[in-house]
Design goal:
The chain has 528 residues and is of the alpha/beta class. The chain is globular, with a radius of gyration of 25 Å.
Length: 528
């Protein structure tokens, strides 16, 4: 293999290996990059694709995170003599431009489970590669299995993937041909004002380290509270979503830390931290489990997982209610406070995300697609494979999950009893007495005057009284479930998407029965 100092015309005849970066913005545990670096000159490519940027789930917040990640990626790649080309245009156009000036040896990338637009883009890339004789090697990035035939064996495959070796750093590669190197501009600059968490490998490593070393102790008891969750949660979600750190790295680091704690002598035991790490690892498993749903059925982005619920909400979408919900002006304080935090920070804990979506689906009776797109644009950690199955689950259209309707008033009393969170994010309510804070529409007029907050002027009247909205939703769903064919569709959904390890035929039959029975559950509690 040539060394970094190789020069001369000989390099012009050596085809270039392209490593196409997408949601894998790192150099560590990057098998496509490592394998390409062992094969010849390498050009790293990232594309800001107009078609992808124009999708309704894309936002400037995502781009800011990516730009910061690219700045670090360019620096890290340079250590292996690899240049990063940031292309503003469609990816096939980039390949065509590169091929026009120099032979391409191969295309390397990770598999991606993205939205329907990225799926169509990947099919176009595959067609281009076939036409031009370019070998495209895709490597799995997470425990998601492409072309999975049987969910029964998925857990074992996930474990095998996590136990596999971490990819070494890329080797130092030969120089690029001058004509190819000339296409690369100066390294991307880090954005001055990120939206929420800043992207990049170094930030990801610091967050992982501080979580495993201490913050994780509050994980089990703190992740439900909007007050405690910002520090109790790992806060790794954007770094996993955009690939600054790999899922395998996080799983292995978590297991190593748990093993370290388990080996401590009795007098140094930290059972709370150890228990939290085990709970956290189970969430990492669920991360891939949900992405597998979209991988197996890409249309979940736009259609109900359980087709028996087609038409449940689609035909009477109330745009006025939707826009008020999206602005955080529903008149229900915890809902509006959560939306305000999400707009400001790009992050919200899982329970509050579920509550936002549940309120939109049940109390406001909104079909999940438009609220899901709005949340996707706000989440810095937007991961399509997790997002769309979760949006559907919280809207009650999967058919295999118990329906959970979050009561935002009870949620506030349970998780923000002193009103600290609500008052922080809704300044208009800061003078409202505790007794009325979570249901301000019930304040007598003399109390409104005394605290200087008039409902309908200083803070919106509620779009719907939460309990009344819940009763209406319950009645509509009960009527819908009288329709024929729902049971058979539930069995289909469970066999394709249900969570399970390898099971016997008898146990599978029992699980089918339970899945069918779940259709009749309507949990009005807050337990997600």
């Amino acid at each position: 293999m040539q060394t970094q100092s190789s020069r001369g015309d000989h390099a012009l005849s050596i085809p270039v290996h392209i490593v196409w970066f997408k949601r894998d913005l790192r150099v560590r545990d990057h098998w496509p990059l490592h394998r390409a670096s062992r094969s010849g000159p390498v050009l790293a490519l990232y594309c800001f694709e107009p078609e992808q940027l124009a999708q309704p789930d894309a936002s400037r917040r995502h781009r800011s995170f990516v730009e910061a990640s690219l700045a670090e990626l360019a620096h890290d790649l340079a250590r292996a003599n690899i240049r990063l080309l940031v292309w503003h245009g469609e990816v096939v156009e980039a390949f065509a431009a590169l091929r026009a000036v120099h032979p391409l040896a191969a295309l390397w990338s990770h598999e991606e489970t993205g939205n329907l637009s990225s799926y169509a883009r990947d099919r176009a890339v595959a067609g281009w590669c076939r036409t031009h004789g370019v070998v495209w090697t895709e490597v799995p990035q997470t425990g998601v299995v492409r072309r999975l035939r049987d969910r029964d064996h998925w857990h074992a495959e996930w474990e095998a993937f996590m136990a596999a070796g971490v990819a070494p750093l890329p080797e130092v590669v030969p120089d690029l041909p001058p004509v190819v190197a000339g296409l690369c501009a100066s390294p991307p600059q880090v954005p001055a004002a990120p939206f929420g968490q800043r992207g990049g490998r170094r930030a990801a490593a610091a967050v992982l380290r501080e979580f495993l070393e201490g913050r994780a102790a509050a994980y089990r008891g703190g992740i439900s509270s909007p007050l405690k969750a910002p520090t109790a949660c790992s806060r790794l979600s954007p770094y996993l979503a955009w690939g600054n750190v790999s899922m395998r790295e996080v799983v292995r680091a978590t297991r190593a830390r748990a093993a370290q704690l388990a080996d401590l002598p009795p007098e140094r035991h930290v059972p709370r931290l150890l228990a939290s790490l085990r709970a956290f690892e189970s969430r990492l498993h669920w991360h891939c489990h949900f992405i597998q749903k979209l991988e197996s059925e890409p249309a979940l982005e736009v259609r109900n997982m359980h087709r028996g619920y087609d038409g449940l909400r689609e035909d009477d979408f109330d745009r006025i209610r939707f826009e008020a919900w999206a602005r955080g002006e529903t008149g229900v304080p915890l809902v509006d406070a959560c939306m305000a935090m999400l707009r400001e920070t790009g992050w919200l804990n899982f329970r509050m995300r579920a509550m936002l979506m549940s309120f939109a689906a049940y109390q406001l009776w909104l079909h999940w697609r438009e609220p899901g797109l709005h949340l996707a644009r706000l989440f810095t950690d937007y991961e399509p494979g997790i997002h769309w199955p979760q949006v559907q689950m919280q809207s009650g259209v999967t058919g295999i999950n118990a329906l959970r309707v979050y009561n935002p008033v009870k949620q506030a009393r349970d998780h923000d009893p002193d009103g600290v969170f609500v008052r922080r994010w809704l300044p208009a309510l800061r003078q409202v007495p505790d007794a009325w804070l979570f249901e301000p529409w019930k304040m007598p007029s003399n109390v409104q005057a005394a605290c200087g907050v008039l409902i309908g002027r200083d803070y919106p009247a509620p779009l719907v009284e939460p309990d009344a909205g819940l009763r209406a939703a319950r009645a509509r769903i009960a009527e819908w479930r009288k329709r024929p064919g729902l049971k058979e569709e539930t069995q289909r959904v469970f066999l394709q998407h249900g969570s399970r390890k390898k099971v016997t035929t008898r146990r599978r039959k029992s699980m089918r029965t339970r899945a069918s029975a779940q259709r009749d559950l309507f949990d009005t509690q807050e337990n997600a």
